[in-house]
Write a structure and sequence with these properties.
Blueprint (H helix, E strand, L loop, with lengths): L1 H6 L6 H52 L6 H7 L1 H49 L2 H11 L2 H8 L15 H24 L1 H6 L19 H10 L6 E5 L6 E6 H4 L4 E2 L6 E2 L26 H27 L12 H6 L1
Antiparallel strand pairs: 1-2, 3-4
Helix pairs in contact: 2-4
């Protein structure tokens, strides 16, 4: 019965999982704060009460037992509460502190595991969800540092490391730097924002274009019908500089390999596009049904031509040759009857 019910349960989405993790994290954080405050309060009460009891026992011992007994054993026995009370307080404080520290460490371990799971889910959001849903999730559940890190543009380094060179090349570079310093200073002063903010690329310069944010109502309806809006696209984020390189369709997202427009890193495709099977080549046509080769066909053709020529010659000879005397002229009908 439980298996049947579990099949009809709705599968949890990324938002539901993050919502559960967020509530558990907040509950554990509140529980940890409450336990820390309780720990401090209990230790404070123990110390105040122990000091009060110690002062009370000291006064009682002084007014009741001091100078009354002649034996030092009796005096030591009467003063035993003053000696044992600090030891009991120390052991009690250590036991309570150990319990609260164990409980707080347990909560910290749970909290660290949940935060790691949350961070892992947030890192996988850009690959599993569309751009709009991923942006909403990062705005709601992600920290400002993670959100800014995922959406910041790439800023190239200003000072490139210099290669080792000879003293002559160093002198030439120093002269070139001295001659070009005023021009460079003027360029830096004229464009300080371009160096600090990094390059700003247009949508047509990216591997995939960005959707237009200023769309009319008709364009939004068409995008909804054709499933071509931001909800049906995935963001191409560079693995090196985490820069936004446009949005690709969900069907081609796993098979797109692109070069980052900011840092130039080649991001390979996540999957290999399936290729169609190779077509079989047609069988070669055979012209000789009898199984002979080309030489036999050629020889048979020449022999037939020679036979035809000999037949023609014999026909002409028979027509040109006169009748022999033995044969004579053909007999008439009367002679044939007499014979």
């Amino acid at each position: 019965m439980g298996l049947i019910i579990s099949r009809f349960r709705r599968k949890k989405t990324t938002k539901d999982i993050l919502e559960d993790l967020e509530t558990k994290i907040k509950r554990i954080e509140k529980d940890g704060e409450y336990k820390e405050q309780t720990h401090k309060r209990v230790i404070g009460l123990i110390m105040v009460n122990s000091v009060g009891l110690y002062v009370l026992f000291a006064l009682l011992y002084y007014f009741i037992y001091v100078g009354k007994s002649q034996y030092w054993v009796h005096s030591l026995m009467y003063a035993s509460p003053l000696l044992l009370l600090p030891v009991l307080v120390i052991f009690l404080r250590a036991a309570i502190s150990a319990y609260y520290n164990w409980s707080l460490n347990k909560n910290r371990v749970k909290l660290s595991k949940m935060r790691e799971e949350k961070k892992k889910i947030l890192e996988e959001v850009m690959d599993t969800e569309t751009y709009k849903v991923a942006k909403e999730i990062l705005d709601k559940y992600g920290t400002p540092d993670e959100h800014s890190k995922a959406l910041k543009p790439f800023t190239p380094a200003i000072n490139a490391p210099s290669l080792p060179s000879t003293p002559i090349q160093q002198k030439q570079r120093q002269l070139a730097m001295l001659t070009s310093t005023p021009r460079n200073m003027h360029m830096v002063a004229a464009t300080p924002g371009a160096i600090l903010n990094g390059p700003r690329l247009r949508s047509d310069q990216l591997p995939r274009p960005l959707p237009d944010s200023n769309k009319s109502a008709l364009d939004k309806v068409v995008d909804y019908l054709l499933k071509d809006g931001p909800n049906y696209r995935m963001a191409l984020v560079c693995t090196e500089c985490l820069s936004h390189n446009g949005m690709a369709m969900i069907e081609e997202f796993d098979y797109v390999s692109y070069k980052c427009a900011y840092c130039g890193r080649l991001n390979p495709a996540r999957k290999q596009r399936p290729s169609a099977p190779a077509l079989c080549s047609p069988p070669a046509l055979t012209f000789n049904n009898g199984g002979g080769d080309d030489s036999s066909l050629a020889s048979s053709g020449t022999e037939s031509e020679e036979e035809r020529e000999t037949d023609k010659r014999t026909d002409t000879e028979e027509t040109d040759h006169p009748p022999s005397p033995v044969e004579g002229e053909p007999k008439s009908e009367e002679e044939k009857k007499q014979d």
